[in-house]
Amino acid sequence: MLKCSEVNVTIRKAKKEDMVQVYKLIKDLAEFEKLEKQVKIDASVLVEDGFKTENPAFTCLVAELSDGHIMGYALYYISYSTWLGKSIFLEDLYIQPAYRKIGVGKQLFMAVAKIAHELPSKRMDFHVLSWNPAGDFYKSLGAENLTTSEKWQLFRLNEDALNKMFE
């Protein structure tokens, strides 16, 4: 098991050149979540949506080793609350298994949380699968499970549902 003192990690804003490595991590995350068949994009879509537009759809932070290897990422975007205004939605936070439990995930999470803290709303939302042990990590940082506390339920209209709706 690695120790934080054994790795030199830099947390920084991603560049379009990083998206090939980030895409590989996205696929790793989807496999970990047992949802790999749901990944429909590739690195070129990440470059297009995040870097080649006037209004990027997301911002990405990466955890990079001194040799240039990206072993983790956090991808977030600005969401909007009609009660509070702009807030952060953390879409993904992923660290390769070999680098977990040494503080890198916390560094990435805290970097995004700091951005959320600087917004007037001071709010950051994110999803965690019910079986994912990361939920305990987030709770230890003060995160609240809205399913329990506010009874919010997450709904989705997927491609099939939308196609049926507009047949």
Explain briefly what this protein structure is.
The protein is α+β, with helices and mostly antiparallel strands and 167 residues long. The protein has helices spanning 19-32, 43-51, 104-117, 134-140, 146-149, 159-165, and strands at residues 9-13, 59-65, 70-81, 85-95, 124-126.
Structure description:
The structure is a single chain. By secondary structure, this protein is α+β, with helices and mostly antiparallel strands. The chain has helices at 19-32, 43-51, 104-117, 134-140, 146-149, 159-165; strands spanning 9-13, 59-65, 70-81, 85-95, 124-126.
Topology:
Layout: E1 9-13, H1 19-32, H2 43-51, E2 59-65, E3 70-81, E4 85-95, H3 104-117, E5 124-126, H4 134-140, H5 146-149, H6 159-165
Parallel strand pairs: 4-5
Antiparallel strand pairs: 1-2, 2-3, 3-4
Helix pairs in contact: 1-2
| Mass-distribution shape | globular
How confident is the prediction overall: mean pLDDT? 94
Through-space gap between termini: 54 Å
> Could you tell me the strand content as a percent range?
15-25%
**H/E element order:** EHHEEEHEHHH
- Rg result: 17 Å
Instruction: Profile the largest sheet.
Output: 5 strands, mixed
Helices, by number, come to 6
Oligomer: single chain
How many strand segments?
5
Key features?
single chain, 5-stranded mixed beta sheet, alpha+beta, 167 residues, globular
